[in-house]
Amino acid sequence: MPEIPCDENGMANKFTKRSKCNIINHFVKYVDFMSTVLFWRDVEGDKELFSPYKKKIQQLLNGEYTNLNLEKLQNTGEFPLYSIRATDDERLLFTTFKGKLFLLDVVENHDYHKSRFLRNSNVLPAHMQKVAEQLKTNKKKFTLCEGVTDLDEQGAQNDFNLKGIEFHHQQLIHFTDEQENARTITTPAVGLGPAGSGKTSVALSMAQKHVHQEMNNNDDDLKPVLILSRSPFLVALTRAEWMNLVADPEMQKRVEFLTFEDLAKRKNPKIKLTKGYEEFTAWCKSKEIKLDYDLMRVWLEFRIASGYTAEQYAALGNKQSCTFVAEEKRATARKEIYDLFTRYVAYLKNTGLVDLELSYPEGNEEFALVLLDEAQDCTCDQLKKASSYAEGMNIVYFLGDHQILFDGKSRLSYLRNLYHSLKIPLTEQRLKGTFRCAQAVINVANRLIALKYHLVGGAADKGESHHMELASTANLGPGYIEWRSSAADLSDLLQQGIHLAVVTSPELIEEAKIKFGTPLVFTPAQIKGLEYERIVMWKPFASKVAMEANKLLSKQPFIAEHSGHRAKTGQSREEFLPFCDELTTGATRAKKQLIVVQDSTHDTEHLVNAVRPVFTQSASTSSTKVEYNVVNKVEDWQKEAVRQRNLGNTQQADDIEARFDTSSPSTSASSSSSTSSSLRFFSEPNPIAETPGSVTENSKDKAKSKSQKAKSAAPAKTTVSASTSSTTAVASRTLTEEQMLGLLDNILKQKQINIVGLVTLINANHDSSRLFLRCLVNHARFIKLPVQEILNCKNLNAVLKEGLTQIQTHFLGKLKNFVEAQIDKQILVGITPTMFATTWGWDKAIELFHKYGANINAKNKLGATALHVAVANQQVSTLKLLLKLGADIQAKDNTGATVAHAAIFENNRSRETFEILKILKENGLDLNIENHGGITPAAIATINGDVGALKSLKRLAVDFDQLDQSGYSQAHYAIFKKKFHVLSVLKEVKCNLNQRCRDNVNTLSTISRLELGELRITNEALTPIEAAVQLGYDEVVEKLVDLGVDPKQKNKLDNNLAHVAAGFGWPKILKYLHSIGVNLSERCSIGSTPAHLAADTDKVESLIVLKELGEPLDAVNQYGITPFMSAIWFNSQKCVDFFVKDNPDYIRIPLVFSRASLNSIPDALINKKQLHILEIKLNEQGKTEDKVSVLPHELAQLLGYGVLSVMLQLSESEIVRRSTKMFGPGT
């Protein structure tokens, strides 16, 4: 809407010559300063509307009203309406306000009744009210957002540009060129950009543009616009922005804001939705599906497969799917995963269930335009199906760079391929700069992007931006960043009001709330789409994946420079993508100030060293620190609570209302101060003598000295009469439990607790007393309240007095025997009073807690319940009591451990263990159940070496042959954890000691779960004795043979234990196997002997023992390869040296091969490069001969082993002499 200065009294057709001059001078100055006339799109769409009338607008600027046929249409209300002639058939409609003209509409054929400003009398006042607010608060932004140049340099302007401005995030802005291009992009389209680049603002502007066009066509029957997102938070936020952007009710209702779930339920209100991954894992377990891959990785792969047919999915490139599988096995993995995907989707269909991530309902072009925000979080199926809701593929996908928080896969390549397959052009528009973050914050984001590329191996997609930059029209200042340790002074970050938010991991949410005294604590996923003036990132490197990243950096030191290319094939580490994007998401929520609180420890030092330098550089170049003076007004918190609830952040809204008493949206005039009446009441201890309805023993004499008064006010020496007739606002109304918790927390934070205020609150009526008792028995932090002093008060109601007396007698009184620091430590991990009483078997206290409303199934921060605590501490009677009171026997902690897992505790007494396990089984608990890591209670017993627990489990008919989700058995666990004495017990309890693990087991997962060091073992299907041989545990091998394990067993390649021992270089085991009759010259399925495997792996010590034992070293396998030739083939230089010293004639015996024999060699024995080289040799000599022979030195040369080739060409003496020099003395 062009803003044009005019007379203060409007356009009353009574212009004096002087007033005309003033207007003209005013406008000449305005146009001289600026080459742009701004218009507000909210009123009338795009610049195309006004562009044809620039000459008429210029006349209006110059005050040439006579030639414009100026006409007043109405003069009612505050905003009169005028029009001027634009053409013979068209007129421009405008109004005046505070000395300025505002163009409103183009009216065709004098049809004024079609203009909504005349049709609906409420539209114009609503818009102009918004104008008034913006002129007041953003005057400079509104009038000079193009920037001002000097008059002398600019000169007179004979023309002007029209530039649209819009109302976003409580301010008027105008778009960059990239954003303007995005508004008019041809659909289907993709809009890409980093955090804060204005993707959501562009989406809203596109919706506004589309609705304007519809309304200008006066078509009321057209389909609405849909703004769609996966996130309820973003949908709510965008809806709120739309209501601020557009005041016209007619326009507001033409745009709908829905999540994928909302849209599906609208289409089918009776739709039955699954629980996603949780449903999938339950199905896998019920069908006893055993996979060689981690279930979560399979589920994330389902998100990709959902958008493809089986043939399309199988044809995907190596960087598009199954990157967690070795390249040569990906084709097989894709087939297995897609087959499982098909089975699972069929199961859902047959049971009437729908998973919105895997099979989203088809649309029927219900919307004129679909704008899909944060599309990078959607599954491939959702991206494809979303277009079916848009009329004529009229859809725009908005993708955020470095904000993929789920599977880590970029969606841009999928969208490109999708529309390419449909033969529909897909337009792309990149939004470069950010309007949100100050430059210092951008510097941090760029450092995190560099870290991401280093950890992952490259960019997620070719279209991803490699760095962030400030938008050309943004004016955010330099900003401030700082790195602190957790031990540093954080007082300036405590209770800092609604402009500071904390970002942390889910496990640290409660800790951060307590630490910073704010309810505005979010995970990266929760805060996505929000922004705050100040952001604190609390312990961002505390997760397990961060520790893995730290280990990687210890081996591959961080380098800040990066090319921005995608990771090379086979070198991508996509497991780090979500972690890195969470860091970037958290940091880019900050507008002006970013504080990272993270200690440098052994588990984090390399990550810290990678990121902290950008903070150090900022500190060295910044001379001033940003200071904030925060006034925590209750009205501010009330608005923030409403905002959070509207955004779907229910927990944050509840915390605000409980902590700051914001439940009442209307406040009196007295509550406009920085502290509400209720907060003032609890802010500091008041002199007790001045409290209505309270009389102390020492306050009757009002003439006492101040020191005596202070002494009498001390809680420890005061007896209070607790009147129930208090008129205090808080005490007199009914409180919710959340509000009571918030008020009690505020009381705990006081340096000196106000006993009078506390008693007045909890003694107001029986309901308040019961509510307080419920809080007391559910939250251990409240045991710090002075219960005994409360009991000293007079006139306590019967409910409060009886409850506190019983709790004091049976629980609080017993806590005197504990050190306060010990109690504080338990409170920090979220222990409940019931758990504390359970630890020590205080059954009477537990019964009381249950009577007063304790949640028996409450969990601490580790996810453990009181039942877990009872069995871990072997409190049998307490266990029975908890079950009687309704404790959930199926409860699991954060690791998926049940109470059966907790019962198997190291050094537990076996009698109590059996009794506890028996009780659990009788009450319906499956003793074979696995935790999230696939560990059963029996496995824990084996890992701990707990013989008694193993025997107890056997008595209860536990399955000892059950493989875990990684594919290992109990016997494997005993070997890996070096609990060798357990093997005899496993034999005793009928465990199969010959059971093989599954093929392609997840060895790394097992190492992590069992907290092992380096585990030198292959991922093939091994028996326990084969695993022991690979690890070189000779005493275990002997023990297993003594227990009846067959020492002559073979694996699927017909390798016996001698092959394994020779290949891994264990001479002592080879000698033992020889002594018990194992054939050390046994041939495997391809004819190789143990000597071949020793040569393959350069285990010369094995060859020495084999020679000592008289085993032949020159056997030929079915490909004509001797151990000597095999040593050359694998560049085993020590073994080559051994063979040549042992028999110099080896260097003159050629290797003869044909094309047929060459092609028959398994892939495991020859790689593509070697095969190609030998095929070239065949092509060179095969023209005249069917077979080709190569001498050892020629073979080494062909395979690229130059040094080895030169050595083999020397004479016998020279070989000995040079090999000694190169490899050390022979044996």
What does this structure look like?
With 1227 residues, the protein is of the alpha/beta class. The longest helix is centred in the N-terminal third of the chain and has 21 residues, at 330-350. 45% of the residues lie in helices and 9% in strands. A 6-stranded parallel beta sheet has the order 11-10-12-13-9-14. A 5-stranded antiparallel beta sheet has the order 1-6-5-4-3. Strands 17-21-20-18-19 form a 5-stranded parallel beta sheet. Helix 47 (1024-1031) runs antiparallel to helix 48, helix 54 packs antiparallel against helix 59 (1212-1223) and helix 57 (1192-1198) packs antiparallel against helix 58 (1202-1208). It has 7 domains: 3-171, no CATH class; 176-270 and 361-431, Rossmann fold (3-Layer(aba) Sandwich), CATH 3.40.50; 277-350; 439-473 and 495-558 and 572-617, 3-Layer(aba) Sandwich (Rossmann fold), CATH 3.40.50; 633-663; 679-810, no CATH class; 818-959, Serine Threonine Protein Phosphatase 5, Tetratricopeptide repeat.
